[in-house]
C-alpha cells in the first residue's frame, strides 16, 4: 500500500504510462521487508488477498516480441508462468495475470474441501532463497473453485461481446479463458480418497471448461501414496481414464484443454524412462518438471530448518530439476512440450530451462521473496539472453543445448 501511494504520487508528475508502470512495480519492493516479518503462511494469505482485490500493480507495457510463442493452439505473450500452489483456490486469477505473467496455474484443487496438514507447515530458508512446505493439498474444493472460475469466465465472455460490438474499439482478443494470459488448473486428490482416478476425473468434469490447460498432480510429497501414481502401470491407467473423461465431454471448435502431468524431481532413471514411455504412447500434451523435492540439495542441507518434513522449493532445487528436465527432453525426443519449474529466480535461470528443453517456465518461491517487481525483470533479462545469442523467438531456443 505504501508503494502504491508513492507511485500514485509519481503519476501526478508524468503522463508516460510506461514510466509510471515501471515505477509502480519497483515501488512494491518497499513492501517486501514487511512481508518478511510476518509468519510465512500469513504472508502468503495476505499476498493472495492483495492480488484478489487489485492491490497489486498492473502491467500496461507490452511484452518484448521475442518472448511471444504459440503452443497447443494458444498464444502466450511470454513464457513466464506462476506455478500452482500460490493461488490454490482461484481467488486472484485476474490480478495475477494482470501483473504480466504469461500464464497462471491455480490449485492443486481437490474434489472435497480439506484443511491440509497441521500448522505450521511453511518454513523459510531465506538466506538460500528456499522454502519447505508440507501443506498437503489444503483446498476449498472443486465446487467453490468452479464458482469462482465460472464467474471469471462469464465476465470475460461479456467483455469479448462488448468489444466485438463496438466499432471503435481497438481491443484485440488475446490470452485465454480467464482474460489476458493463459489459465492452467492443477488437479489433486483428497487425502482420504481410496480412488485417485475418480478424484481426477471429477476434477476434469467440473473444472476443465474453465481451463486453458489441465494438470494431473501426482508428485506432491505431502499426500501419502500420491507419488506411487508415477509408476508406469499406475500412470498409464490414470492418464488413459482422465483423457477419456475429458474427451467424452462436448467441446467447441477450440477443442478440449491440453492435459499435462506434473512429476517429481526425485525419480530414478528407470522411473523417468517409464514416464516418458507412457507420455509418448498416450500422446500426453505435456509434462511439468518438476514439483518440490524431498531431498535437501546443498547449501540448504546445512540449514537448521532443513530437518523439517516436506517438499523443498527455490534456488537449491534449480540444478536437480533442470537435470531431470534435460533427461526427460532426451527421453521424449523433444516431441512433448515441457514446462520447466524449480528454482527459477532470474531471466538467466529461465533461459537455462528453455535451452534444456522447456517451452514454458514456471516460478513460485522467487516470486514469494521478490514480489511483483520480479516479473518484469525476469522477462527483460530473458529477452536479453535470447537476443544476445541470436534467437529470434523462445521456440528457436528450446532444447538449444542439444543442438
Widest sheet: strand ordering? 3-4-7-8-9-10-12-13
Number of domains: 1
Strand content: 5-15%
- Computed CA radius of gyration, to the nearest angstrom: 20 Å
State the distance separating the first and last CA atoms: 48 Å
The secondary-structure class comes to: alpha/beta
Mean of residue pLDDT? 91
- Corresponding CATH architecture: Alpha-Beta Barrel
Major sheet: 8 strands, parallel, barrel
Structure description:
- The protein has 403 residues and is α/β, with parallel strands linked by helices.
- It has one domain (20-163, 171-402): TIM Barrel.
- The chain contains 14 helices and 13 strands.
- It has helices at residues 2-12, 17-27, 32-36, 40-52, 93-98, 142-165, 196-207, 232-247, 269-281, 318-331, 347-355, 365-370, 374-388, 394-397; strands spanning 69-71, 74-76, 80-82, 103-109, 122-125, 130-133, 182-187, 213-217, 259-263, 286-289, 311-314, 338-341, 360-363.
- Helix 7 links the parallel strand 7 and strand 8.
- The longest helix has 24 residues, at 142-165.
- Its EC number is 1.3.5.2.
